[in-house]
Please model this.
Amino acid sequence: MDYAKMECKMVAVVVSVSRKAQSGRRSPRRAISADGSIVRREARPVLCRLENISYHGAGLKTFDLFEAGAAVTLHIRYMPPMRASIVWSDDFAAGLQFERPLTAEEMTFLVETFAVPRIEAAA
Model:
């Protein structure tokens, strides 16, 4: 059996799936850094840090574990509470899908208010 050929095929499959997952997003993600909290039904708030956001969801780091499918409410400073569900969770990171997509005004506000500064490479 030629293991070198098998290894190449396996890598090609992984790359293909990865590209498909990126292109399958409904809207592009924007990097932000915003402190917030997540509230599960009738539970105490859990602190989190949003790391990226799109019209349809967000990626975050949290100080608690969440189960995929859990209904939550996301609270971010200056914004009304946003209902969402946990799409994926891995250790202390999670992905949310908003119940209602953000408006263009909300998205612009969040990106401008909580933008992650770009560090320019030295020439």
In short: The CA atoms of residues 55 and 120 lie 27 Å apart. Helices lie at 3-23, 104-114. The first helix runs from residue 3 to 23.
